[in-house]
Amino acid sequence: MAVLSTCIETFPLRRHFTISRGTKTKTVVVTAQISADGVTGRGECGPNLRYAETPESVVEQIEALSSEIANNLDRLALQALLPPGAARNALDCAMWDFEAKRSGRPAWAHAGLDGLKAVQTAFTLSADSPDAMGRDAATNKERPVLKLKLTGDDDLARVRAVHAAAPKARLIVDANEAWDTETYNKTVPHFVELGVALIEQPFPEGQDAELVNLDRPIPVCADESFRDASSVVGLVGRYDVVNIKLDKTGGLTNSLQAVSTAREAGFEIMVGCMVGTSLAMAPAFLVAQGAEFVDLDGPLLLADDRDWPIPVEGSILLPPRAELWG
Description:
Elements: E1 3-19, E2 22-36, E3 39-45, H1 55-63, H2 66-70, H3 75-81, H4 86-103, H5 107-110, E4 119-120, E5 123-125, H6 130-139, E6 145-149, H7 155-165, E7 170-174, H8 181-191, E8 196-200, E9 220-222, E10 241-244, H9 246-249, H10 252-264, E11 268-271, H11 278-288, E12 293-294, E13 312-313, E14 316-317
Parallel strand pairs: 5-6, 6-7, 7-8, 8-9, 9-10, 10-11, 11-12
Antiparallel strand pairs: 1-2, 2-3, 4-14, 13-14
Helix pairs in contact: 1-4, 6-7, 10-11
């Protein structure tokens, strides 16, 4: 009989991390474990107030399924019992890990992949003054891809400062829903000359229909407007890229489906993350195979990671070890 357990864990960050919605100095995650016959599978999620989640509410959602887990609930049945979100992500990924460890076959084989290749991740610069972001960019100027958190005011100055400090870097800018159409029209034409390769979620979810009528000289990526595979149809014509995060889709199972559905609809793929440990990044590694944009730098922002962290060489993430996950 499988036994389910959960815990809430806190990991301090190397430095403060600011986006348009606020600042944090630590990240709080929920870890789910499924154990039976000497085998334990783990999954981590990052509850997010943007989606009305708290660590406590997520634990409650997970533990409500204890009896179903004891009766050998599988991943496919799980999809119907929990909505997309952090709780389902932790359980789904714990199931993948448990299945891999019990069978002796890695998770990537269960997913139908031929193996895992290293991926290059963007490195995120927290929103700050233009001068501060320029200094941060100078420290990270050798990284091939930098992602800038923006706030809706003085963003052009921020991008100019970063480009001046790291002129070779490919830039991703993330407004986290902070822009309006006036800001977009005034700002985006200048970004073309500043090495910006992608614009994430410029407008609030539900207020992005105007993107159909706007020039998009730089690809625009849906983040908050994209939840899971079911979101794809409503984004056609508005966006060029979708950002797949396991904490939004509700796990690896739906994320793999989301990749297929988005590709069929003509979207490019970005794989992103909440700020979490290597345990949260490991299953996303499977989704990142072949993605045009990868943003799995969560562990790089932590002061301390878990045991068996994902190996990192600069901005290159190497495949996770089985001791960690999968």
